[in-house]
């Protein structure tokens, strides 16, 4: 693993790698992150998602997951005796989570919702307006975290790259409750 405070680790200078990642994110999205408090480097996106679940979930908590998504999320939740709430997304909408579907799934036990953008395995892309809709719901529920798996964000067949849910808002209270997962493995064909 990598210590982003700048000390030398198995992988070399952690601060250099974190700064490089920060600059790439800034180039792609315009977002500027603090390498000491807002970028965490782990062994892969799956590990990051697992660690996030580990840090936010208690037994009986719920995580909303859209139908037609990566199956591993469900297995991860079992480790924490948490419940996956399957959002009844539809093929007509490319299995994307809508504000109405998201809000209908929220209970007092909801800790987070997960989206993948681009969708895995559907390839569906969320528009800016669709992400704004999800953020409107997030704003109404201050105890919920938005988890956005963006590991495929550099693989797309449109003129514009997919939006990151984090670049859609400048509201600090929302940004503090958005966790974005990304990595190198898909974009440079390591997996």
Please tell me about this protein's structure.
The protein has 191 residues and is α/β, with parallel strands linked by helices. Helices cover 31% and strands 16% of the residues. It has 6 helices and 7 strands, in the order ββααβαβαβαβαβ. Helix 2 packs parallel to helix 3. The protein is globular. The N terminus is likely disordered.
The rounded Rg comes to 16 Å
The biggest beta sheet is recorded as:
5 strands, parallel
- Shape, principal axes of CA atoms: globular
Distance between the termini: 19 Å
For the secondary structure, the number of strands is: 7
Average pLDDT works out at 88
Topology overview:
Layout: E1 8-9, E2 12-13, H1 14-29, H2 45-56, E3 62-66, H3 72-78, E4 83-87, H4 99-105, E5 110-116, H5 128-140, E6 145-149, H6 172-175, E7 178-181
Parallel strand pairs: 3-4, 3-5, 5-6, 6-7
Antiparallel strand pairs: 1-2
């Amino acid at each position: 693993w990598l210590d982003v405070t700048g000390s030398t680790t198995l992988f070399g200078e952690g601060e250099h790698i974190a700064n490089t990642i920060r600059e790439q994110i800034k180039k792609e999205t315009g977002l500027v992150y603090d390498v000491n408090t807002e970028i965490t480097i782990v062994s892969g996106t799956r590990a990051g998602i697992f660690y996030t679940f580990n840090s936010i979930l208690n037994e009986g908590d719920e995580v909303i997951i859209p139908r037609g998504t990566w199956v591993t999320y469900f297995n991860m939740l079992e480790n924490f005796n948490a419940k996956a709430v399957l959002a009844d997304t539809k093929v007509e909408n490319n299995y994307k989570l809508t504000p109405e579907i998201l809000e209908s799934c929220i209970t007092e036990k909801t800790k987070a919702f997960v989206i993948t953008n681009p969708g895995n395995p559907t390839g569906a892309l969320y528009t800016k307006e669709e992400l704004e809709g999800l953020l409107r719901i997030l704003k109404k529920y201050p105890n919920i975290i938005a988890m956005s798996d963006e590991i495929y964000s550099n693989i797309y067949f449109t003129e514009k790259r997919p939006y990151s849910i984090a670049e859609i808002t400048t509201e600090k209270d929302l940004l503090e409750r958005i966790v974005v997962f990304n990595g190198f493995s898909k974009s440079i064909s390591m997996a």
